Amino acid sequence: QDPEIVREMARTIEGELLRCVDVVAGFLKLSHSGLEPTRELSIVELVAPVERLVAHSVRQRGCSLRVELQDELPNVLGRASDLHRVLINLIMNAADAAHMPGVHIWLSAQLAADGNVELRVSDDGPGVPEAIAERIFEPFFSTKQAGEGTGLGLAISRSIVEAHGGKLSLERTQTPGATFTLTMPPSGKRLDGLPLSLEVPT
Q1: Would strands 104-111 and 76-78 be described as parallel, antiparallel, or unpaired?
Q2: Which residues contact 159 (CB under 8 A, 6 or more apart)?
Q3: From the CA atom positions of the chain, what is the Rg in Å?
Q4: What H or E segment, with its residue span, contains residue 129?
Q5: pLDDT tens, position by position, 130-170
Q6: Predicted TM-score (pTM) of this structure
Q7: Which of 87, 126, 159, 177 is the one with CA 20 to 30 A from 104?
């Protein structure tokens, strides 16, 4: 009969319903991502829109973003919106995990010795504890507080990258912060050397 308890229960129900909406929306976006045509993409074409989209949100969280691109990187084959989503998710994860102002985030791209393109999202924040590093890409596993995340962002991001013939991994470093590396083969290839046939996971 306490109206305050009723209000608190209503807020809890609303929060969980919104979380369900986020989960379903994530699956729907993944299932419809194949509607965009596959084409050759320059690394600048991948990075520039992402930088514009996240700049304000990163600043709002008291963080800074710096972009560093090596010259004359080869093109990659894929769907721009899918790869944009991966980079945005990695950058915003770093900003959300900061928990303090002044954290620096770097988005960089360089050519690896094996000829693949490596895009890195690094930060000098608290990093990923060793105890959960193995689980970070599991569906529905989240380090955020209840109601703040679906636990699908990294799982979907890895699926998207693998569908593009690439690899998404968390680097193990002894320095503060975290580094996620998105490794993409040059246009039309896979990391295993086989021809690329782009299929979006369902």
Answers
A1: unpaired
A2: 30, 201
A3: 18
A4: none
A5: 777 777 878 766 665 544 555 677 888 998 999 888 999 99
A6: 0.74
A7: 159
DSSP 8-state assignment for residue 127: -
Q: What is the pLDDT of residues 48-105, one digit of tens each?
A: 999 988 988 899 899 999 999 999 999 998 888 889 999 999 999 899 888 778 899 9
- The per-residue pLDDT for 200 is 44
- CA gap 120, 60 in Å, rounded: 22
Could you give phi then psi for residue 88, rounded to 5 degrees?
-60, -45
Backbone φ and ψ of 133, nearest 5°: -60, -35
Q: Give the confidence band of 41 by pLDDT, cuts at 50, 70, 90.
A: very high
Contact 22, 150 (CB under 8 A): yes
Please state the separation of Cα 167 from the chain's center in Å: 12
- CA 43 → CA 1, 56, 117, 168, distances in Å? 60, 22, 9, 16
DSSP 97-119: H--STT-EEEEEEEE-TTS-EEE
Cβ pair 69, 47 in contact under 8 A: yes
CA atoms within 13 A on the CB side of 95: 21
Q: Give the tokens for residue 85.
A: 């989503």
76-80, 190-194, 198-202: the lowest-pLDDT one = 198-202
Q: What is the DSSP letter of 33?
A: G
